[in-house]
Amino acid sequence: MGRILSGRRNLSDEQRMMLDSVDGLMAKYDEAYWGKLDRESAYPDEFVRAMEKQGLAAVPVPKEYGGPGLGVLDASLILEEINAMGGNSQPFHGQYYLLSAISKFASAEMRERYLPKIAAGELRLQSLALTEPEAGSESTRIKTSAEKKGGAYVVKGHKVFISRIENSDLMVLVARTTPYEKVEKKTEGISLFLVPLENIQGMESHRLEMMFNSQTYELFIDELKIPGESLIGEEGKGFRYLLSLLNAERILLSAECIGDARWFVEKSVEYAKQRVVFGRPIGSNQGIQFPIAEVYAKLLAADKVRTTAAELYDGGAEADAVGEYANASKYLASECSWQAANVAMDVYGGSGMAVANHIERKFRETRLFRVAPISNNLVLSYLGERVLGLPRSF
After folding, report:
1. pTM for the structure as a whole
2. What is the pLDDT of residues 275-320, one digit of tens each?
3. What's the mean pLDDT when you consider all of the chain?
C-alpha cells in the first residue's frame, strides 16, 4: 500500500488482504498505463477485466448472489487505494453505489436476474442517468418522463453528463412517473429503473469531451420502451432510494479524493527530499514543508469523517444521519485533494506541468470533485440548512 496513511489505521486482516490484492494489480497497471489511457481518452477495459477476475468489481453484491457482500466502507477503501497508487477508480464508484441501491431496494426477481451475473463479471452496471441540462443539482426538477402504457413504460427526456454508457451493460435511469406540477411534495413521483443497454432503441448518446479522461455522454431519449419489471422498488417512491444511493456516492467519491490526496502528498514528499537547490533539499525550507504538512493534517481529518459516514451507512442509520457525514466527508475530502494537488504543483514547479510526472493528469482528475456530483457550495447549503437549521436560501 502507498506509504501515506498506511500503518495508521485499524484495518482488519481481511481488509489488508483486500488492499494487497489491489496493490498487486496496480503494480501492473501503473502510472504509465493510466497516462496512456489519458492521452487516448480511453476506457481502462483491461484493468476493469482484471478487477472482475479478482472479484473486486462488484464487492457490494450480497453473498447469496455470489458476491463478497462487503459494505460501503470496504468499497471505499478499494477506490481510495486505486487512486493512491496513481490510478483512476471512476469505473467502479458508479458500480459500487448502484449495486448498493439494487441490493437494498430492487425486487427479489431483479436481484436474482442480475446480481449473480454482475458478481461473475458477465455484466457491468456502471451508469446512472440522473442529471439533466435544466435541472442540474435540483434532482426533483427532472423532466424526463416515464409513462406507463400497459405493462411497459415509455420514456422521453434529455440527460447530460452521464458516464460510461458505452462501457456498461445496464443503466439506472431516473425519471418522473408523475409530473412535478401534479405532486403535493416535490420529492414524490420520481421512479428508478434498471435498463439493459444492449441493442437499446429510443435512445441516442453523444460523447462529451472533458478536461480529463472520462467516458461522459449526453443522452436523447424518445419513445424508449422499458418493461414494467425494470422498475426498482415502488413507482413514485424513488426519491428515497435516490437519497440512499447519493449518500453512498458521496462517501465513495470522498474515498477517491482521499486517495488522490495521499498520492499528491507522497509525490510532494519524495520530490521535496530529492530536489536540491542552493545546496540543500527544497524540503528543508518551511515554505515547502508547511503546505505539505497542512494538507496532510486535513487528510487525516477527511479520512476520519469518511470512515464515520461509511460506518453509519453500513450500519443502516437513517438517511439524514448518514447525509450529514456523507456530505461533510465529500466537502472535506474534495477540498483536501484539490489543495494537495496545488501543493504538489508548487513543490514540483515547472516539472509539475510535464506529462511524464503525472501531476498535471491527477490535477485535472481531482478538480472534478469540487463541483460534481454536487458542488461544494450546495454541500455547505445542505449542512447550513438541513443540519444547522439556518433559514433556507432558495
Report:
1. 0.96
2. 999 999 999 999 999 999 999 999 999 999 999 999 999 999 999 9
3. 96
Q: Is domain 239-387 annotated with CATH 1.20.1070.10?
A: no
Reduced to 3 states (helix: H, G, I; strand: E, B; else coil), residue 66 is coil
Of residues 190, 194, 192, the one with CA closest to residue 139: 190
CA-based end-to-end distance of the chain: 44
Statement: residue 208 has pLDDT above 50: yes
CATH architecture for segment(s) 126-236 = Beta Barrel (2.40)
Name the CATH topology of 13-124. Butyryl-Coa Dehydrogenase, subunit A; domain 1 (1.10.540)
* Rounded Cα gap, residues 56 and 66, in angstroms: 12
Determine the Cα–Cα distance for residues 308 and 310; give it in Å rounded to an integer.
5
The phi-psi region of residue 349 (left if phi > 0; otherwise alpha if psi is between -120 and 50; otherwise beta) is left
H/E stretch holding 203? strand 203-208
CB 361 within 8 A of CB 35: yes
Which residue in this structure is represented by grid cell 426538477? 141
Report the C-alpha gap between 96 and 370 in whole angstroms.
21
The grid coordinates of residue 193 equal: 429503473
Domain with CATH 1.10.540.10 in the chain: 13-124
Q: Name the pLDDT band for 1 (thresholds 50, 70, 90).
A: very low
Q: Which residues contact residue 199 at a Cβ distance below 8 angstroms, ignoring those fewer than 6 apart?
A: none
Lowest mean pLDDT among 2-6, 142-146, 180-184, 359-363: 2-6
What does each C-alpha distance from 341 to 113, 248, 336 come to in angstroms?
Answer: 43, 25, 9
Residue 172, all three cell numbers:
439506472
